[in-house]
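Weekly structure sync, notes
Attendees: PL (lead), two postdocs, one rotation student
Agenda item 3: pending single-chain targets
PL asked that the sequence for the first pending target be pasted directly into the notes so everyone works from the same version. It is reproduced below exactly as submitted, 179 residues in total.
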Amino acid sequence: MCGGRPLRVRALQRSRRLRHAARVTRRSAGLLLHRRADDGTVQVLLAHMGGPFWARKDDGAWSVPKGELDPGEDPLAAARREFVEELGVAVPDGDVLALGEVRQSGGKVVQVWALEADLDVGLVVPGTFALEWPPRSGRVQEFAEVDRAEWLDVETARAKLVKGQRVFLDRLLAVLGED
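Predicted structure, written out during the meeting:
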């Protein structure tokens, strides 16, 4: 006993505190481009996630172009940087509208801004990342961060988008007065 509690209990409490302190919330920021189609419907620009895990998946395998913040980085600046890194094109000019943030099921907090702009997806040249593939093979390969980008109507986008980001479509429609 030490201080009224058995040493084992104190050790477990200390262990939990250390594990909790070691968990750092990962944060990402992104830009959700939107435009009006010729028929007046809202379309959004989404990116299909690259790499071998997502290669054969479609529904639930698309994302807002986004990426993780560097320590101390301004979230909007990170969103703009990540847009360029992921799609290989400059961020179009225009005013951004904050769509807030969500905590995805894995714990990552994603913050997104909407930007009304048009972008030719034929110009997209995605960045790459290195990954040991197959796992534990010792072979490191380069994969595209995204393997394609497309303009999708909101209902199609809702099916394609990863579940944790679908709320941004609702928020976009609300700020556009389309809800």
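Discussion points:
- The chain has four helices and nine strands.
- The longest strand covers residues 27-36.
Action: rotation student to compare against the earlier draft before next sync.
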